[in-house]
Amino acid sequence: MKPRFSTWMKCVGAAALSLGMVGTLSDVAHAADKKFKMFLSMSYIGNDWQAEAANMVKAMASHKDFADKVDLQVQVAGPNAQRQIQQINAMVQQGAQAIVVYPISPTALNAAVKNACDKGVMIIAYDADISEPCAYNVSIDQEEAGRVTAEWLVKHLNGKGNIVVVTGVPGTSVDTLRTKAAKEVFAKNPGIKIIAEAVGMWSQAVARTELSKILATHTWDQIDGLWTQVGCYTANTMQIEAGKKPDQLKPCSGEGANGGRIQMLPAGAEVEGANGTYAPMGAPRISYASPPYAGGYALKLAVQKLEGKDIPKRITLPLPIVTNETVKYCKEGTWAEMKDGCNAFPPALVPNPGWFASIYSPETPEIGLQAALVGQPEP
Q1: Which of 4, 114, 218, 230 is the most exposed place for a label (fewest CB within 10 A)?
Q2: What is the CA 338 to chain-centroid distance, rounded?
Q3: pTM above 0.85, yes or no
Q4: Are residues 338 and 359 in contact, defined by beta-carbon separation less than 8 angstroms?
């Protein structure tokens, strides 16, 4: 026997309530249809920064302000431009409305990006640039980062000394622009000699391997300073392991890894969870970083654009620069503390010393410490 209409309606109502939704089934279907189909296209992921940035993109997408608007899928191409091109083309064929990209090259993806734009897909790159005019870009001024940190090192060495250079991921605009700007500074100061150079891939582990190779033919006593894109925390650690005292550490221009910033704090400073080389030692440093929130901000901007708002083609983020004079310990890692300028987190909260600490932006209150650590939005 067929059920009564009223009985059928009760079942439908119960099903809708069991989904935690209010309204008719057609309302539910309409809400699902309103989600923007978005992709995160990542290239090289073999370092702490990339993992953290991906966490913050995912956290932004899952924030209550975006969870009902965004259907996000993530694909990783690795350091392979052709594979990233193929993935972007496939994303377009799958109906992407926006693609957030960490590009392996500023130019290699241009044809695929132009094809996507011609089909109405928004392309927005974070940290590393895409040169195709239809693309949007969110990043710091990478040349400024290279120049400012090189100038600090030259000044700290009084314009004279032997230095080691550790670069990033070859081919990316980030590595190219930073290295070019830094070497232009060193070239203007003939007393500065680059005695060794290595490709560090923005990885503490790779930096250790490459520095070990350099130390096979040089000693720490022959090195007066270091300019790295990632590796200052590791360089300080290796010096301590070699028997150097904290006041003997070489000045280092490098990344915004939390371990390095804890090392910058005055020796003896009380830091929760500090131990071994992940402890305050007054290491002479300038610490900079592409902020990992850039990807999350790119996703937020993409949603705004899809909703019909105007956004600039180029967003230049503030360059986070921290020195021994401006390093500030976060006791709890709360949003209020970060807003007040704290920039080094307790090892008890952040056990990975390679984790990047420049996570605060007033433009992205949706994502903070939990986003960077585990991919969860702010409460």
Answers
A1: 4
A2: 17
A3: yes
A4: yes
Question: With DSSP H G I counted as helix, E B as strand and the rest as coil, what are the percentages for the chain, rounded to 5?
Answer: 40, 15, 45
Per-domain residue ranges of the chain: 30-140+291-318, 142-288
C-alpha–C-alpha distance, residues 89 and 189, integer Å = 46
The CATH T-level fold of domain 30-140+291-318 is: Rossmann fold (3.40.50)
What number of residues does the chain have?
379
- What would the pLDDT profile of 278-333 be if each residue is shown by its tens digit? 999 999 999 998 999 999 999 999 999 999 999 999 999 999 999 999 999 999 99
Measured distance CA(19)–CA(25) in Å, rounded: 11
Q: Which residues contact 377 (CB under 8 A, 6 or more apart)?
A: 59, 60, 62, 63, 64, 366, 367, 370, 371
Contact predicate 111/118, CB 8 Å: no
Residues sharing a CB contact under 8 Å with residue 88, sequence separation 6 or more, in sequence order? 41, 99, 101, 109, 112, 113, 116
Asked if residue 320 lies in contact with residue 180, where contact means CB atoms within 8 angstroms, the answer is: no
User: Is-same-fold flag (30-140+291-318; 142-288)?
Assistant: yes
**Integer Cα distance of 74 and 69 in angstroms:** 16
Residue 270 has pLDDT above 80, yes or no: yes
Handedness of CA 43, 47, 48, 49 (dihedral sign): negative
Residue 36: strand pairing partners: 70
Backbone angles phi, psi at 226, to 5 degrees: -135, 140
Third-level CATH fold of 142-288: Rossmann fold (3.40.50)
- Segment 119-142, tens digit of pLDDT: 999 999 999 999 999 999 999 999
Q: Is the dihedral of CA 169, 174, 179, 180 positive or negative?
A: positive
